[in-house]
Amino acid sequence: MIDFNRPAFTGKETDYIKQAVMNHKLCGDGEFTKKCSQWMKDKLKTKYSLLTTSCTHALEMGAYLTDIQPGEEVIMPSYTFVSTADAFVLRGARVAFVDVRPDTMNIDENLIEAAINEKTRAIAPVHYAGVACDMDKIMEIAKHYNLKVVEDAAQAVNAYYKGKALGTIGDFGCFSFHETKNYIMGEGGALLFQDDEMLERAEVLREKGTDRSKFFRGQVDKYTWVDFGSSYLPSELNAAYLYAQLEACDKIDERRMSVWNFYNENLKDLADKGIIEVPFIPDYAKHNAHMYYIKAKNIEERTELISYLRSKDICSAFHYVPLHSAAAGRKFGYFVGEDKYTTKESERLTRLPMYYDLTLEDAATVTQAIHDFYKGR
What is the CATH number of the domain that holds 136? Predict the structure, then answer.
């Protein structure tokens, strides 16, 4: 059986977890949490990085810190995970869904401006599959209309736009370290930002509404409740696992990229004949091999393909059902303009197995099965 995903294990994870246990420090913001945050600061050139319990919580923090109010609106693609929308809906905001580009499955930057009205407060671009949105265009629009930008970079840790790390370009960037991502801690995420004025508010929000972070730095004699907040700190056990992954990032990247390139090279003949479509990487983007997908002709063909692969003990999967088509999407948001590509393209997309331990022999089995499926069709 070729699984769709397996959590990565690089070797030092259990050693670091044991070290955390022996340090008698299991709650948040211990040694390994600090090491993970510092790695992101150094590697990704971000000024501030706060580890969180999930990307969902990082997005929630980003939404809170934009000061979006009930009845105000945020623009995002409908082709995304529910957390992108939930973060703002929890603040009472409405969601304006915009169509995607069919080549990258990212928000169509040329349609954003038409979705802006007097209630618009923020834009939440999603870097699908670790491939960058056109951030120059998005940031230009945001500046012109005085909007906040919250990057959903859940799939885009260590991916880049014109040399800048995704998640560091907007006002806030949100990462995921869920076990399906490139670097993992089981459940976890991070909030990135550059604005000095946001640090204290972010720390208070993350620490249950207290100034506990300032207390540990010796800036106050005792900590107290100063504002609203919640508990967004991950356990040191999770952070210890993650730090082993971050230390091994080059090894993880190399393995994932080798599989991604193998898929791309060995499915090129089908793509050249127009039988399938394969991922498109714009010149401005350096992706991170988070995902490899192909697009079938339509949903019927995709369903048959997934079923065929499963009959060969290969697990593949489709991805998001567009949010605007869901009951909650209709309740909390609306689609702006024509749904020209979002639904149609989402119904064609199939994700192939992709994980750290996937061998090129397994990848060859996958590509051969896809070729066999399309023979004579």
Answer: 3.40.640.10
Helix axes 82-89, 55-65, angle to 10 degrees: 40
Domain span holding position 157: 13-247
232, 247, 262 - which closes a domain: 247
Nearest-angstrom CA–CA distance, 199 and 375: 57
Of the candidates 238, 233, 240, the residue with the CA atom closest to the CA atom of residue 213: 233
Number of domains in the chain: 2
The verdict on 54 and 157 lying in the same domain is: yes
pTM: 0.96
Strand spans (E) along 124-209 = 148-152, 160-161, 164-165, 172-176, 189-193
Rounded to 10 deg, the angle between the 249-266 and 360-374 helix axes is 20
* pLDDT tens-digit map of 33-81: 999 999 999 999 999 999 999 999 999 999 999 999 999 999 999 999 9
pLDDT above 80 for 123: yes
